[in-house]
Amino acid sequence: MKVCKFEKMKEEDEIRQVINYILKEHPYVVVVPTLTQLQEWLQDISISWFHEEDSASHTTINNIEEYCCTLADHLITDLPLNTDIKKYIRECIEKMHKLVEDKADLLIDKIIKAEIYRLSGELFACCLRQHGLNARTLDTGTFMQMNLERKPDIPYIQESIRQYINENRDTDIFIAPLSLCKNVYGEIDFMNEKRNDYYATVLASIFEADEIILSTELTNIYANRNCAREQHSLTYTEAEQLINSGVHLIYTDCITLAARSNIVIRLIDTHDLETERLYISSHDTESSVKAIIVQDSVTFVRFTSLNVLPGYLLMGKLLEVINKYQINVISMASSNVSVSMILTASRDTLRIIQRELHKYTEMVVDENMSVIHIIGSLHWERTQLESNIMETIRHIPISLISYGGSDHCFTISVHTADKKQLLNSLSQRFLERLSA
């Protein structure tokens, strides 16, 4: 059983693309975002309402009604279904008109937002019904409850959703509005957008899904898609180590929860739903190189000792400052006279570090760097793999190499200008062809 989550739907064409993808994949649960245009109007309502511009709020709500009815006419040609969805739209619009008559209040603002989320979900469900699926909206504003730590209360969600599923066993597919939930006090609320993937993964675990398909913007992953995907899939451990090192894939808790429930994660591109960018599972074929992941806009910093502090004290001082300013260090190498790091930090933060350490070290900074993570089964016993990597990139200037800290990752730092040449060389050697 599958769960799908989609991140953005802006236009009619994108809605159709998502529907076609669903018809191909046959998921049991689909987590859908609110249409982009509706999101923008929601912001307009909040602004005008809190400024007590009631007429502007009512005008925006009327625009929402017109927009949704137009979508219904374009996407839902079955007359009874078209009539039903327009009736639902009218009821929803009337509720919002009444709500904005009240004094501006944060809770009511969330209730208005929830109405739009439900409307967007119901509109999408009706589109699927036209294709012969018995689609039903899953009101996550009722079932998805947060605990005191603002994390999903999984036992509560399991119990409430199980009962709902039992009552609707004839349903082919459930449509869940993305991020809609309720807080520990039972009030309408929304999960932080940065945790959308986790929101969907919680639903996947609740529904005991075998796999979850996450649509997200990924432009930094290269993999060998000439072979079976299990041959280039990452294990949960490999993916988790990458995320913890600062690589943007998905929210870390998604990996932990998916591993606990043994749910396969498939990452697809928001702009190209047919392209699977990465496959994360418990299966490890111990392939030498499975994928290559790129991080841009990082900084190379070399700290050279001024011999004021002995080596062990200097290292302690560097780590103290790094911890103080919560700087993400991607890779690091040291000698008896210097320490080199690849890190992510703003120029202002780098200036502060330089000011704090100027008595102890000379600091050299090189911006516009990129980091290449070569992912696979890279245990030291594979004696030829690292030499093959180095042989492949011997013609490219390397700033820093990190190897040995993990059995799953070989990290190389180069100037961004050399990144494309490096990727081409590695892909031709290990991935057969460049896939981006």
TrEMBL record:
Q: Which reaction does it catalyse?
A: L-aspartate + ATP = 4-phospho-L-aspartate + ADP
> Is Membrane a UniProt keyword of this protein?
no
Swiss-Prot/TrEMBL GO biological process terms? homoserine biosynthetic process; lysine biosynthetic process via diaminopimelate
Q: Which UniProt keywords apply?
A: Kinase, Transferase
Question: Which InterPro entries does the record associate with it?
Answer: AceGlu_kinase-like_sf (IPR036393), ACT-like_dom_sf (IPR045865), Asp/Glu/Uridylate_kinase (IPR001048)
**GO cellular component terms listed in the entry, alphabetical order:** cytosol
Start and end of every Aspartate/glutamate/uridylate kinase domain? 110-268
Pfam families found in the cross-reference section? AA_kinase (PF00696)
Gene Ontology terms for molecular function? aspartate kinase activity
The Swiss-Prot or TrEMBL record describes its family as follows: Belongs to the aspartokinase family.
Name of this protein: Aspartokinase
* Species name: Bacteroides thetaiotaomicron
